[in-house]
């Protein structure tokens, strides 16, 4: 039996054994991942109508890959006030958004109360809007800065209207690579602990992996296995989606010119689908992959493409062509043109509409 068949029959392998998956021919690997994806989701491609809001770019941390935070590379600090956030949210709802995805820098200027009164006001103003907010890195930052336990921060999030957590801040779990990328930020075991605590509260979240920089294939497999293990021990299977984020090369402190080939990217997505049999969705995030490759990825294990976004600031600052989001019409047209069913979902993957 080959490695793929053994994985399929439940044999467990170490990361250094699983790295051999990359030696498979792309189409063989893709076909295997596609079968798994079709068994779970037939030929549906999920998307949502959402809006990203990044309240501030003033950051106490210096992640080498980041082009978003105000720094020497991006000397334009900003900080939104509550009225601006409310205005953006209102606009977003007018444009059909059912979710706001709120991720901020780690701003030393915001108080603990600021975060939670912002969520509370949003929820009271727009009760049916799903608030996906606070990466585990932000939870960790708030915990350290304001002397609160993770549990207290998470409870305050839930109490004040945060519905689910985004997957940001995971980067790469390997401790040595992480030190080189984002020393001082939430540690790998802390990131996983925060999501586990959130899941214990009956809540859901996503998980990302930033790849295509200084990490190796082995580090990616290790990252995926740590997520798989956490999901196995989660009481509610709390991770909804795994999102491999392709590193964008511009305006940051990592000196990497060469992105991985499309083959390498598709293999990474296929391997994620094959190994993560306990995470239902694999998101090919169009903002980092580009729409065309994100659509191809739907035949290599992915089943989700993210949403309309409306305004995107993190990846676009680093070179992605995503600053204005994408219209719902174009997204649906492209999904259908690629031969898939375009399914609008809510933030927890309940199906809302088929176009
Ligand atoms: O954690 C920063 C990444 C993430 C770069 O949960 C970069 O549905 C590429 O987590 N190139 C934040 N990526 C965004 C995020 C996210 C995005 C979409 C959907 C969801 C979800 C979550 O952005 C950070 C970091 O890994 N990032 N800089 C860069 N140069």
Automatic annotation (TrEMBL):
Q: What is its EC number?
A: 2.5.1.120
Q: Does the keyword Iron-sulfur apply?
A: yes
Q: Detail which positions bind S-adenosyl-L-methionine.
A: 65, 171
Task: Keywords in alphabetical order, please.
Answer: 4Fe-4S, Iron, Iron-sulfur, Menaquinone biosynthesis, Metal-binding, S-adenosyl-L-methionine, Transferase
Q: Which GO terms describe its biological process?
A: menaquinone biosynthetic process
A Pfam family of the record is Radical_SAM
Cofactor info, note text: Binds 1 [4Fe-4S] cluster. The cluster is coordinated with 3 cysteines and an exchangeable S-adenosyl-L-methionine.
Domain Radical SAM core as annotated: residue spans: 45-280
Is Transferase one of the keywords?
Answer: yes
A GO molecular-function term, please? 4 iron, 4 sulfur cluster binding
From the UniProt record, give the pathway where this protein acts: Quinol/quinone metabolism; menaquinone biosynthesis
Question: Gene3D superfamilies from the entry?
Answer: Aldolase class I (3.20.20.70)
Catalysed reaction, written as an equation:
3-[(1-carboxyvinyl)-oxy]benzoate + S-adenosyl-L-methionine + H2O = 6-amino-6-deoxyfutalosine + hydrogencarbonate + L-methionine + H(+)
* Cofactor(s) named in the record: [4Fe-4S] cluster
Q: Which residues bind [4Fe-4S] cluster?
A: 59, 63, 66
User: What's the stated role of this polypeptide?
Assistant: Radical SAM enzyme that catalyzes the addition of the adenosyl radical to the double bond of 3-[(1-carboxyvinyl)oxy]benzoate, leading to aminodeoxyfutalosine (AFL), a key intermediate in the formation of menaquinone (MK, vitamin K2) from chorismate.
HAMAP family assigned to the protein according to its UniProt record, in alphabetical order: MqnE
Q: Which PANTHER family match?
A: AMINODEOXYFUTALOSINE SYNTHASE (PTHR43076:SF7), FO SYNTHASE (COFH) (PTHR43076)
Family from the record: Belongs to the radical SAM superfamily. MqnE family.
Protein name as catalogued = Aminodeoxyfutalosine synthase
Organism of provenance? Helicobacter enhydrae
């Amino acid at each position: 039996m080959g490695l793929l068949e053994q994985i399929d029959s439940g044999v467990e392998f170490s990361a250094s054994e699983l790295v051999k998956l990359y030696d498979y021919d792309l189409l063989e690997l893709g076909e295997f991942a596609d079968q798994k994806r079709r068994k779970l989701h037939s030929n549906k491609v999920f998307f949502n109508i959402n809006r990203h809001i990044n309240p501030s770019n003033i950051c106490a941390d210096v992640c080498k890959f980041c082009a978003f935070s105000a720094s020497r590379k991006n000397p334009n600090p900003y900080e939104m006030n509550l009225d601006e956030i409310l205005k953006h949210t209102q606009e977003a709802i007018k444009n059909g958004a059912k979710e706001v995805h709120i991720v901020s820098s780690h701003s030393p200027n915001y108080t603990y109360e600021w975060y939670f009164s912002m969520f509370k006001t949003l929820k009271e103003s727009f009760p049916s809007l799903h608030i996906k907010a606070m990466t585990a890195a932000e939870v960790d930052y708030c915990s350290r800065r304001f002397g609160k336990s993770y549990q207290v921060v998470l409870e305050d999030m839930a109490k004040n209207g945060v519905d689910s957590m985004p997957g940001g801040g995971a980067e790469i779990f390997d401790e040595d690579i992480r030190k080189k990328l984002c020393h001082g930020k939430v540690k790998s075991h802390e990131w996983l602990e925060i999501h586990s605590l959130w899941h214990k509260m009956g809540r859901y979240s996503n998980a990302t992996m930033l790849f295509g920089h200084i990490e190796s294939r082995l580090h990616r497999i290790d990252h995926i296995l740590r997520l798989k293990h956490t999901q196995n021990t989660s009481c509610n299977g709390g991770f909804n989606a795994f999102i491999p984020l392709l590193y964008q090369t511009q305006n940051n402190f990592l000196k990497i010119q060469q992105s991985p080939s499309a083959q390498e990217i598709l293999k990474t997505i296929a391997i994620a689908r094959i190994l993560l049999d306990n995470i239902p969705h694999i998101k090919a995030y169009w903002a980092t992959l580009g729409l065309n490759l994100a659509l191809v990825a739907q035949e290599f294990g992915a089943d989700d493409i993210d949403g309309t976004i409306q305004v995107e600031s993190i990846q676009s600052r680093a070179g992605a062509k995503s600053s204005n989001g994408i219209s719902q019409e174009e997204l649906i047209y492209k999904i259908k043109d690629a031969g898939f069913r375009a399914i609008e979902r809510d933030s927890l993957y309940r199906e809302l509409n088929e176009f």
